[in-house]
Amino acid sequence: MALPQRRTDIGPPHYKDFLPPVIQKNYGDWKYHEILNPGVMVHVSNKGEKIWTVRVASPRLLSTDTIREHAALAEKYCGGYIRYTTRHNVEFLVSDEKNIEPLLKDLKDKKYMVGGIGPRISNIVHTQGWVHCHSAACDASGLVKALMDEFADYFTTKSLPNKVRLAVACCTNMCGAVHCSDIALVGIHRKIPIVETDKIKNMCEVPSTIAACPTGAISPDPANKAVKIKEEKCMYCGNCFSVCPALPIADPVNDGVAIVVGGKVGSLRSDPKFSKLAIPYVPNNPPRWPEVTSAVKTILEAYIAGARKHERVGEWVERIGWESFFKATKLPFTFQHIDDFTIARETYRNSAAFKW
Ligand code: SF4
Ligand code: SF4
Question: Using one digit for the tens of pLDDT, what is the confidence trace for 279-290?
């Protein structure tokens, strides 16, 4: 005799339980979708049934009050159906066409930014930054706020050759989607951790600290009951600090941001791509990061000027060649680029000669 299915609290509930009824009824049976304006798209099924998506921006770190407001709007206009995308866009899933205009009006009155669908930027996926994480080399939320303020028009109205996915990770652990975004920022440390000799013996286990280093840069310092770090072997990853808080690596003067370009997840027209290094270091300059914002603008403007319709950033760069990318953006090609361009996964080149 089959046992009744047990309900447990292990694992998430099945996602299908949360789909709007229109999607449940037409699951896997969609005919087409159409972008009606920068913030609204419609999916049409083979049965002729429709569901509309209204997308708004979010700062990712949301207050309880804001989430309650989202939920109230979803209850009022969408039967309670709302979703948060992996890039922190908020999407209201509307099954009744007559609710779209009142929802848009309500969103406008509440000063939400509607847009992000189609050939434009969407919300910027990002990590914890100084708010929450111990290994951050730059802030995430502050940097994203500065970028979104600068590029808001590309979310709400202006068009690009294709969608441009932006990402920020505040250290090279890279909790964001930096490796597969069109233009992405990654926080970098540039100095080895400080060894706080007097604290290590009370705060850290020496063997696990040594084992945490991927390059074998850490060795025991028995005289001081501490560890030593070989500078030329350190790649400033911050891994040791995660297991030993007496090896702080954050440095307000030398930490900064690297910018990588050309990644994408989708396989439309061309294979998914990893991003490659465009700028090895831009200084941290909170609260508005003008140097970073200006560097991203330079790359975005070169893409707008040079790309064909539907080309993603990586596709544009590969068509013109990386040498032309550096010429078009006037970015210097430096020694830090060599690894990325000679041991790149798709080329497996291992010489310093650089020609595309
Ligand atoms: S990217 Fe690094 S600093 Fe940022 S949240 Fe992840 S681990 Fe922390
Ligand atoms: S920062 Fe990374 S490479 Fe440098 S010592 Fe620590 S774990 Fe090793």
Answer: 999 999 999 999
